[in-house]
Design a protein that fits this description.
By secondary structure, this protein is an alpha+beta fold. It has helices at about 5-15, 15-55, 65-75, 85-90, 150-155, 195-200, 220-230, 240-285, 285-295, 300-325, 330-335, 350-370, 370-380, 380-385, and strands at about 55-60, 80-85, 95-110, 115-120, 135, 145, 160-165, 170-180, 190, 205, 210-215, 235-240.
Length: about 400
């Protein structure tokens, strides 16, 4: 007896019912795949951004630390500024290995593209250890270090004299081009700190200070000393590891809610599959009686309907994974607009282990949902099934 062909027989009999049942399973598995992929992508993206920043502490003006971290990492115009005199106090604090000052501002051009300018000095190189520069870091006046994405978009090359986007009448020479970092640095235009302060009319002011510690395990003590210095009341000291944990806890709360929704969707889908197969058992009562009369055992009947349920869930799960991956860019764009902090890295991407987990959940769902219908079909006696009118047990 060909169990696979027998279990597939009802697919052709009731294509509409099968399609609706598959859709329910696909939606539940798509939700599960999106949740697992987002969780992994968000954690990896956050960690990658902090690693690329190269700092353990972010010193910013008073305000929301989440907004400040997002601006420092992704680029934007700052609403307020730090006095440059604070830099010396930060740099001389015990436990601080490097304090790199920065002045950042941003503009949008007519096409909607953002042009981010960042004034820095050579101390930034102690933090950005993953940088690979074609050319040299800016040393003289009006020299520029541009990200790979900027160089490609603006068609700039080494040694070229260029006009600065959104800054009429101002220009500079490209002294260096950053190799792709896969982060926000690719879209930044770096220049000397004094040049940026003079160009954007904020002399002796900074937007933020990036701090790298001698010993990352000494984070708590160093943060306490920065809070206790004379400028401590005028600046926000943001430990990035703490910020990461806080943001992650907020995301975990949302993930728990989404996980409950995905679980409910799986339970509803399982109930729908079980109900659909029970209807099939009712409709095939006479057929079951004939198979039993011809020698089919209880286990044979059980196996036919259990395999049918398993096939529906497995195919529905496969469709759900494919659909979720196809819609991942749309879902990611929607999530970015609602997260308190979104890394620039891709949040949802394909991973085989996640697809395997989703398909395994489909198999478990099908196995559980098929037990009741298969048991109901297997317990029918041949005589009762043969006497039953069509459509009744």
């Amino acid at each position: 007896m060909n169990w696979i062909s027998l279990s597939l027989k009802d697919w052709q009999r009731r294509p509409l019912r099968t399609g609706i049942t598959l859709t329910g399973v696909a939606i539940a598995i798509a939700a599960l795949w999106s949740l697992l992929s987002f969780q992994r992508g968000y954690q990896d993206g956050m960690q990658s951004e902090l690693d690329r920043l190269g700092a353990h502490i972010l010193v910013v003006p008073k305000g929301c630390p989440y907004d400040a971290a997002s601006i420092a990492l992704h680029g934007a115009t700052w609403p307020c500024y730090l006095k440059q005199s604070y830099l010396k106090q930060v740099a001389t604090t015990q436990g601080v290995a490097t304090a790199a000052p920065a002045f950042m501002t941003a503009f949008y051009d007519a096409t909607g593209a953002q042009n981010v300018y960042v004034g820095v000095d050579k101390s930034i190189l102690a933090l950005k250890r993953g940088w690979h520069i074609q050319g040299r870091f800016p040393q003289g006046r009006d020299e520029l270090l541009v990200g790979s994405a900027v160089a490609e978009r603006m068609k700039w090359h080494l040694g070229q004299q260029v006009n600065l986007p959104n800054v009429p009448g101002q220009g500079g020479q490209v002294s260096g081009i950053l190799a792709p970092t896969q982060g926000a640095d690719d879209s930044f235009i770096y220049m000397g700190l004094n040049d940026a302060q003079h160009l954007f009319k904020h002399p002796n002011e900074l937007t933020h200070i990036l701090v790298r510690l001698k010993d990352p395990d000494d984070l708590e003590n160093t943060v306490a000393q920065l809070h206790g210095c004379s400028a401590g009341l005028e600046m926000n000291v943001v430990p990035l590891a703490h910020l990461f944990r806080t943001i992650q806890s907020l995301v975990n709360s949302t993930r728990l809610l989404l996980g409950c929704i995905a679980l409910i969707a799986l339970l509803v889908a399982g109930a729908g599959v079980s109900n659909a197969i029970l209807m099939t058992v009712v409709e095939r009562t006479r057929e079951i009686g004939i198979m039993r009369a011809l020698g089919a055992s209880h286990s044979d009947i059980f196996r036919i309907f259990w395999l049918q349920t398993l096939q529906v869930c497995l195919v529905g799960g496969g469709i759900g994974v494919v659909v979720a991956f196809a819609a991942s860019r749309t879902l990611e764009a929607w999530l970015r607009g609602r997260l308190p902090f979104a890394p620039t890295d891709t949040l949802i991407h394909w991973e085989w282990w996640i697809a395997d987990v989703c398909l395994a959940c489909s198999i478990i769902l099908g196995s559980a949902a098929g037990l009741l219908p298969a048991w109901r079909a297997a317990r029918l006696s041949p005589c009762e099934a043969m006497r039953a009118s069509r459509g009744q047990m």
